[in-house]
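Subject: sequence -> structure tokens, single chain

Hey, anyone have a minute? Need the predicted structure for the following. Not urgent.
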Amino acid sequence: MEGRLQIFSGNANRPLAQAIANSLNLNLGRSIVSTFKNGETRVKIEENVRGSDVFVIQPTCTPVNQHLMELLLLIDALRRASAARVTAVVPYYGYAKQEKKTTGREPISAKLVANLIRVAGADRMLTMDLHAPAIEGFFDIPVDHLQAGPLLAEYIRGANLPDPVVVSPDAGGVGRANSFRERIGAGLAIIAKQRPQPDVAEMIEMVGEVTGKTAIIVDDMISTGGTLAEAARALKHRGAEHVYACATHGIFAGDALSIIADSVLVETIVTDTIPLLSDYRDARIRVISVAPLFAEAIMRIHKDLSLSALFS
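Reply:
Had a minute. Here:
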């Protein structure tokens, strides 16, 4: 890709954006991302981007609608300022749980957000661990889909946990859990659950042996914490010696941190795709940075190199 490499960020996760820029030995692009007195989002790019290869780092985390609007306006402003290429770097993709209709008269919100990003003017999309891999197909632009599994597995291997078994919290996560199991050399167990209503899960049954083992629950995100705490309690009831949890996105909505702090989990490992509150350590949460991985992906995209090596 000809032209300068420039990095911009909204307000969703400035620490991650700064860490990515530092890894690339770059400064974050100067911009104003604020709110007018009438509540509308204000965006202004404060440096020349004409002919540049620009990456906008903005997870669409809470408050989701505000951060989504910042992303769209940043893309539009950069496109109108004659940037040669604009890549939306969305470490956490909001509305990903609404990727299909579960009942009649519901929107497919994940598809709508994909359309908005494209129409705003993004040429590419760089993201991590979409809730449903099929969301890639919602985009009519190239999507590079990074995985946090290798980073989380590396941490677990370094912890030297005795007799580990990887647990998928639902049938849909079996592929993710199996890949994680292969990376750390462990067994596999699967929890079957149902969702009677949004953000509520009920465990039905479990397949696999966890008695006397160190169970590691692997998921893509932790939202309310209730499902995770219930799964950990069930694993202890089934005879697991210790229970850990690994997830890419630590949403921790509502009183999730308190629920996890009061659970039987020894430690919960997440990445910094979403900024965490300062009191998260009280819940025995470990944060692993994905900044070096995103920095490497950005440099490879800029130089038109393959990203396949990043999945190893």
